[in-house]
Amino acid sequence: MNLAGTEGFSLSLDFSANPGDNGGGGVSVFTYNNLSAFVDNFGVLEVSVGGQNIQSAQWAIGVNAPTSLEVRIEADKALHVILNGNDIGRIANANVGGPGQLVLGNPTGTEGSITYTSVNARQDANAGQGGGGGNGGDAAVDGDPAPGRVLIHFGTGNDSAEDYYVIDKSDATLNGLGIADADVTTQTNAQTSLTRIEDALVRHAEIRTYLGGLQNRLENTVSNLTIQSENTAASESRISDVDVAQEMQTFIRNQVLTQSAVSMLTQANSMPRMVMSLIF
Asked: Which parts of the sequence are annotated with region: Disordered (predicted)?
């Protein structure tokens, strides 16, 4: 796709309203045709064109999370990545065509769309051109997970937008690992392919580590919930036992008092009978 215009063309995001939803690990910030920005599970922002990583930068999380991300063409006709207004790097190998023209890999079509994949957030997006470009308008997230992500919903009586957990299972395919176009026909290409394969092995290990950590957390959570359930049942049993013992104690006390009262009345009535028997 060709996005033409003077220098100043930009794709930008403003997520200052809820930065925590975009600063976590494994969150795809946005995709625009073949251009994408992704924050991995180690807090590294990766910008890619056509599936190839072309820019990486450390992404702060929590209260220090960035509130804006912009990818734009500067006067040098190159693609730049801007975090919070700070240019973090020039993407020298981006395919910039004529003056102010960015080629994203799809030769057909003149329009594109920004697809948000962050869950439970709403940001303003614009895909304008410098000097009077169009505005992409507002985009809202409907809660559907992005490809490569699994949304797990907990509970039966609550809404699907509540009590959910998103797991990034990452893309471990050849395209996702960047080795689909590996070429060993020349020494240079073979060396480049070996480097990509080494990076893919590291990425594969990171994905396995991440999923293993999630599995351990899930098992630990299940174990804790099981223990809590057993403790709750034991506490309920003890409370029931105490209630029964207290009621039995009250019953026995009232029974003793009743029997004592009957005995006293019997003794009280015995004297008049004895007197009457002596008289008659």
From this structure: 123-144
Please state whether beta strands 35-39 and 27-32 pair in parallel, antiparallel, or not at all (unpaired): antiparallel
226-256 burial, b if ≥16 CB within 10 A, otherwise e?
Answer: eeeeeeeeeeeeeeeeeeeeeeeeeeeeeee
Amino acid identity of residue 120, one-letter, is N
Alpha helices in the chain (DSSP H): 174-177, 187-279
d(CA 40, CA 247): 61
Give residue 266's Cα distance to chain centre.
Answer: 79
pTM of the model: 0.35
Q: Is 224 exposed, middle or buried (0-12, 13-18, 19+ CB in 10 A)?
A: exposed
DSSP character at residue 21:
G
Cα–Cα dist 83/259, whole Å: 87
Q: CA 13 to CA 111: how far, in whole Å? A: 18
Question: Which tens digits make up the pLDDT trace of 53-104?
Answer: 555 554 444 444 555 666 666 655 566 667 666 776 665 444 444 433 444 3
C-alpha distances out from residue 220 to 72, 85, 207, 240, 248, Å: 45, 42, 20, 30, 42
11 φ, ψ (degrees, to nearest 5) = -115, 125
Alpha-carbon dihedral angle through residues 153, 156, 162, 163, given to the nearest 10 degrees? -60
The span from the CA of 132 to the CA of 150, in Å, is: 39
Instruction: List the one residue out of 125, 107, 113, 94 whose CA is nearest residue 32.
Output: 113
Determine the Cα–Cα distance for residues 134 and 110; give it in Å rounded to an integer.
Answer: 12
The rounded distance, in Å, linking the Cα atoms of 25 and 21 is 10
171-189 pLDDT per residue, tens: 677 777 778 888 888 888 8
